[in-house]
Amino acid sequence: MASVLIALGGNVGDVRETFRKAVANICGMTQAALIARSSDHVTPPWGEEKQDRFINACIEIETALDPHALLFTLHKIEKKFGRDRTKETRWGPRTLDLDIIAYDDVKLDKPELTLPHPRLFERAFVLVPLAEIAPYRVIGGRKVADALAAVSTAGIERLPDVG
Question: Which of 37, 40, 83, 123 is catalytic?
Answer without folding.
Answer: 83
